[in-house]
Design a protein that fits this description.
Largest sheet: 10 strands, mixed
Number of strands: 12
Distance between the termini: 27 Å
Number of helices: 12
Structural class: alpha+beta
Number of domains: 2
Length: about 375
């Protein structure tokens, strides 16, 4: 015989004040989890969703990012014309040596931030198929012109088409605005690679990006290039490289999300426990009646646990609703791999909602277990004599 679940659920709302406080505590715990998880999700999507498995990024062996990689012109010539590089209709290799550096620039909201600058060429733009110019045009090779990632236009002053940006002691004129559909390139400034090499007074490049003739053989290619003493580089698909860049910070944000949620959730657990303990005290005679007419203790236990879960589910839904208000809001943070700013937006995905509801129900189970156990262990005789 099971206790009608409607009895416990309806009883929860007799004590409106205590129930409301518990729901609010759970909601705030869940909202914090949603906010930080949405932050991690947005950062991860911006990087892990960047690039193509058809393109490879070639870095110096041992380099963990483009910013610490180096490549001589001789190595770039060997790699750019190698047999693993795909060709266009005219038989020209689809490859582009690039230079990657970071510069501290003023933000519109005050302060400075490190912005990634990519020196590239016409092939570099063509190899990234999802890129398009939403304003202006591409920079002209040989000129001090710059193309601004769409996300930076709202974060850096003087980045409108026709404006000028001072960088590395040189004034660069903004030629266009680049849109990569939310990828990492939206947070970069692009300039002509040969002009950039001269400005930085470098002898070579940072990396090489190329279209692979056989994308499915990237593992064998990587091992071969590592073992080739002429070049000594590693090969990663573009998508693999950017996914690795997201790893450390994304994990740290998720750990932080659950740490904060655990702290706030502990308070919510105590709130749920106190609310239901009070309910057990107030409804002692009712519980005794249920036990006396034949309801088994496990049915009473289940009924009170369902009551706790119902309160937790409402709090969880409210918390998700509060956290969802951040969805799509643009923000930015420092990429720990390159120490440059990465712009992205909060993303409340189904996986975030599921984790949030798991937290709320976990609070409900933990917070309701003790009161439910106490209710189920009441003696019918003692309970019915209680005034």
């Amino acid at each position: 015989m099971a206790v009608p679940w409607t009895y416990n659920v309806k009883s929860a709302f007799v004590r409106k004040g205590a129930t409301a406080l518990t729901v609010t505590a759970i909601a705030f715990s869940v909202a914090v989890l949603v906010l930080v998880l949405a932050l991690a999700q947005g950062f991860e999507e911006a990087l892990a969703g960047t690039g193509s498995d058809r393109n490879a990024i070639l870095l110096r062996s041992g380099a963990t990012s483009e910013g610490v990689s180096g490549m001589t012109r001789d190595v770039a010539r060997i790699l750019g014309a190698a047999e693993f590089v795909a060709r266009d209709e005219d038989g020209m290799p689809l490859s582009q040596p690039e230079v990657y550096a970071a510069f501290s620039l003023e933000r519109k909201d005050g302060g400075k931030t490190n912005i990634p600058v990519r020196g590239t060429g016409p092939q570099g733009f063509g190899l990234r198929e999802d890129l398009r110019l939403v304003e202006g045009r591409m920079f002209v090779p040989g000129r001090h012109e710059i193309v601004v990632g769409r996300a930076l236009k709202a974060r850096l002053p003087g980045t409108e088409v026709g404006s000028e940006v001072e960088m590395a002691g040189v004034v660069w004129r903004v030629a266009g605005i680049l849109d990569s559909a939310g990828q990492a390139y939206d947070s970069e400034l692009w300039v002509d690679v040969e002009v950039f090499v001269r400005v930085l007074d470098r002898a070579g490049f940072s990396t090489m990006v190329c279209r692979l003739a056989e994308p499915d053989r990237i593992g064998a290619l990587d091992q071969r290039l590592r073992d080739d003493p002429r070049v000594s580089v590693t090969a990663k698909t573009e998508r693999q490289y950017f996914a690795e860049q997201a790893g450390a910070l994304s994990i740290a944000l998720k750990v932080l999300a659950w740490f904060l949620a655990a702290i706030m959730g502990t308070g919510a657990v105590f709130g749920a426990t106190n609310t239901l303990l009070a309910a057990v005290t107030m409804r002692t005679r009712e519980i005794g009646t249920l036990l006396a007419i034949g309801f088994p203790p496990r049915a009473v236990f289940t009924g009170f646990l369902l009551e706790s879960l119902a309160i937790a589910a409402i709090g969880g839904a409210l918390g998700v609703l509060l956290g969802y208000q951040c969805n799509g809001i643009a923000t930015g943070t420092t990429n720990w791999s390159t120490f440059t700013e990465q712009s992205f937006s909060f993303q409340v995905r189904p996986s975030v909602v599921v984790q949030a509801m798991v937290l709320s129900l976990l609070i409900g189970v933990v917070g309701g277990a003790l009161p439910a156990r106490r209710a189920s262990r009441l003696s019918p005789q003692v309970a019915l004599r209680t005034l």
